[in-house]
Design goal:
Length: 261
């Protein structure tokens, strides 16, 4: 399975409080994400004394047993905002902020600008769309667009991707989400959005994702089931993937680990 390294949201999304019912006075346990484990894949978070994620270490085991490791490191401003991330000392992402939102990300490979990503938002702060540009020499030209839609509960309902050719945008794929549970989204704490660290897509956990092609025909379905801890946070997700055009189905588990501090 191809792995995409995504950047974790900022410090406010790293730390969260899980209440435990005890005798008065009521105390709270404090947790933060530690690692994800799947068959042949592991991702671990490393924190600095201030509680900011400064490094993510990912390991994938290939069919021939070769282990491929990726290290992603993060830098912050004095105000605590993530300013850059670097993958394997080669690929660098630089983040530009307006207020509390990232509006532009520049991607550089070995010091050379390769892509630009710009973001627009709705009045309520939800992301609306992302425009992708590829550098043609020193000039970025439009390459594609991703549009985001949300349901009334604040959960992502669809992600629609377009490619740009000559003078127009053309639909490529649609991913639709539904069957959300009522528990806090585990992706909000463990997923990495490499292009926009402040992106929040799920309030709760989706139960299904349907992928459709440019003609609107579904070609794959992912069904999700979760196990939760006593505080209501998911500690395991089972993903069942079905490819509709061939009728094949497979599943795998993702385990989530926290640390108390």
């Amino acid at each position: 399975m191809k792995r995409l390294v995504h950047i974790l949201p900022l410090l406010g999304a790293f730390l969260f409080l899980i209440s435990c019912e005890e005798e008065t006075p009521k105390k709270q346990k404090q947790y933060r994400p530690l690692r994800i484990e799947e068959v042949a894949y592991k991702r671990e978070l490393v924190y600095n004394p201030a509680g900011q994620v400064i490094r993510v270490i990912s390991e994938s085991v290939m069919p021939d047993k070769e282990v491929i490791s990726t290290i992603q490191e993060f830098e912050y401003s004095n105000e605590g905002r993530m300013t850059t991330s670097v993958i394997d000392n080669e690929r660098r992402y630089q983040y530009m902020w307006e207020g509390d939102r990232i509006v532009k990300t520049e991607e550089l490979v070995n010091g050379i600008a390769t892509n630009r990503f710009t973001f627009s938002y709705r009045a309520n702060g939800q992301i609306k769309e992302m425009l992708t540009y590829v550098y043609d020499g020193a000039t970025p030209r439009l390459k594609g667009k991703v549009a985001y839609a949300f349901d009334p509960s604040g959960n992502l309902s669809s992600v629609t991707e377009f490619s740009f050719h000559e003078t127009a945008l053309y639909l490529e794929t649609i991913n639709e989400f539904d069957r959300y549970d009522s528990h806090p989204s585990i992706d909000s704490y463990f997923d990495f959005h490499v292009l926009n660290t402040g992106m929040h897509l799920h309030k709760n956990n989706p139960g299904r994702m349907v992928s459709k092609n440019k003609n609107g025909v579904a070609y794959a379905i992912e069904d999700y089931t979760y196990d939760y801890n006593t505080d209501g946070y998911a500690v395991k997700r089972e993903t069942t993937l079905t490819f509709l055009h061939v009728g094949s189905t497979g599943s795998y588990e993702t385990h989530y680990f926290f640390e108390e501090f």
